[in-house]
């Protein structure tokens, strides 16, 4: 397999540049070594980056990919003297956007991910809310939730809730559906008045069995029969309650969150 | 203030396109309305997107910014018939990268953020680990942690740990420094054998006072005097134990995480 090194070089956190690293997944025939260099904000650090780029080129026998966000023009041009394939987010986006908007950009380091950024406090508040309303921990404050995820134990509610909060500032509570709900055949009473913001997650029995087995190997809880039963009953319960759900089996938290946001923002 | 609408239109989650939305923070004199349209993978949805773009243009009296990741060529060219300023990540990145790598890209929808993506399982495992090792909840398994954050209560340990896990797949435990540690004047005993992976967070007393007051208004715990005391003692304790720390007062979780990753990956 071809080898390449991808550098993410930024005068700030490197998060924006790093996000573009995801686009490398479109080239599965190349094996990428990803190297992050945040806070590269002095000429000395740029020179050290150039040394690393040159070494990677020798080792891979191919020039590295350099994805960069550097506000300072001197740092930018010095870095570009390296032998590499450059994706310069300032050149590519900020400068043309500046023309389009008729406005000079802020060029300081780390602007995109500072606490001054839009919605930072909302996001942190949502993370706190979500962690305090994980796994049906409390019913108090549920009226503040923007979404309440329900589903059987270990179907992916917690990581999805946390992602919704951290990434989008959505206050996401989650509530497990457990054997006593199945026996009663209805949603937990505390959720009845919040039906309009409940979203369900389900999962394939085989996958749930594997996930639960990692934690409690050989238990009744983890057995394939019990997983099948719980899932069938949970889906019935959600169907009767008119709750939309999504299958988490082969979906990432990013995909599930995008589906859930669609539902929240454009209710049917 | 100028108004513009920024559309993020993707055949997948829209996360990669959305990440570039952060670059809009470089233009603080424009007020952006951000509209996400994930899973835009049919001609019908593209047409509906075009209608929204035209409406936004009328309302803002300026053409919208459209940041797009669409693998399908027909969908892409149909969307581009709209009157908007386009940032086409396929055109700008994937196609040139394809030339550079001498390799055709995968063009299916949603490749970047599928569960097939690199390291997805590691990330989810790290999130579980982190939530199970929040706030000194347990000492068991600390040897598996890649970093252990310490600091006074409410200085930002939890959201930073969760971000490290979710974004980077780092198993990040966190441990509060509490009055009994201050009296004893040493780190909690459970941490002694893990000193090499401890990272400290601190915060300005005024900010801590404000944060604690939101939860327990008027308490001794939240008083400015107590906050000053706890912070001074915690910093002393960390100094004596030789622990590196960062001030969270004006840093985002993205910035703190980038600092911590630097420390983990390139120990002094």
Please name the defining characteristics of this protein.
268 residues; elongated; Rossmann fold; 2 domains; alpha/beta; four-stranded parallel β-sheet; homodimer; 10 helices
Helices and strands, with pairings:
The structure is a homodimer of 268-residue chains.
Chain A: E1 2-10, H1 15-20, E2 30-37, H2 43-60, E3 65-69, H3 73-79, E4 85-88, H4 89-101, H5 120-132, E5 147-152, H6 157-168, E6 172-177, H7 179-184, E7 198-202, H8 205-215, H9 224-241, E8 245-247, H10 253-265
Parallel strand pairs in A: 1-2, 1-3, 3-4, 5-6, 5-7, 7-8
Helix pairs in contact in A: 2-3, 5-6, 6-10, 8-9
Q: What is the terminal-to-terminal distance of chain A?
A: 47 Å
The chain-level structural class of chain A is alpha/beta
Helix content of chain A: 40-55%
CATH class label of the largest domain in chain A = Alpha Beta
Radius of gyration of chain A: 24 Å
CATH architecture of the largest domain in chain A: 3-Layer(aba) Sandwich
- In the CATH hierarchy, the third-tier topology of the largest domain in chain A is known as Rossmann fold
- By DSSP, the count of extended strands of chain A is 8
Summarize the largest interface: chains and residue counts: A-B, 67 and 67 residues
The ordered H/E elements of chain A are EHEHEHEHHEHEHEHHEH
- Overall average pLDDT of chain A: 93
Shape of chain A: elongated
Major sheet description of chain A: 4 strands, parallel
Can you tell me the number of structural domains of chain A? 2
Q: How many separate helices of chain A?
A: 10
């Amino acid at each position: 397999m071809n080898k390449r090194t991808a550098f993410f070089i930024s005068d700030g956190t490197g998060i924006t540049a790093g996000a573009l690293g995801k686009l490398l997944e479109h080239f599965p025939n190349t094996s990428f070594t990803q190297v992050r260099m945040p806070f590269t904000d002095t000429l000395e650090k740029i020179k050290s980056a150039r040394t690393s780029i040159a070494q990677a080129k020798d080792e891979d026998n191919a020039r590295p990919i350099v994805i960069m966000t550097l506000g300072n023009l001197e740092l930018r041009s010095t870095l570009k003297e390296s032998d590499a394939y450059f994706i310069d987010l300032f050149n590519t986006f900020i400068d043309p956007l500046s023309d389009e908007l008729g406005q000079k950009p802020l060029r300081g380091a780390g602007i995109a991910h500072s606490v001054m950024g839009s919605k930072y406090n909302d996001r942190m508040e949502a993370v706190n809310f979500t962690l305090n309303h994980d796994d049906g921990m409390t019913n108090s404050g549920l009226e503040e939730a923007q979404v309440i995820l329900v589903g059987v134990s270990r179907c992916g509610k917690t990581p999805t809730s946390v992602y919704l909060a951290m990434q989008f500032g959505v206050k996401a509570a989650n509530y497990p559906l457990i054997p006593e709900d199945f026996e009663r055949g209805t949603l937990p009473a505390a959720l009845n008045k919040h039906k309009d913001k409940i979203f369900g997650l389900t999962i394939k029995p085989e996958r749930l069995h594997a996930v639960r087995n990692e934690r409690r190997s050989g238990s009744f809880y983890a057995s394939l029969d019990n997983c099948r039963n719980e899932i069938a009953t949970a889906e019935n319960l959600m169907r009767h309650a008119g709750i939309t759900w999504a299958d988490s089996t082969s979906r990432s938290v990013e995909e599930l969150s995008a589906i859930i946001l669609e539902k929240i923002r454009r209710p049917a």
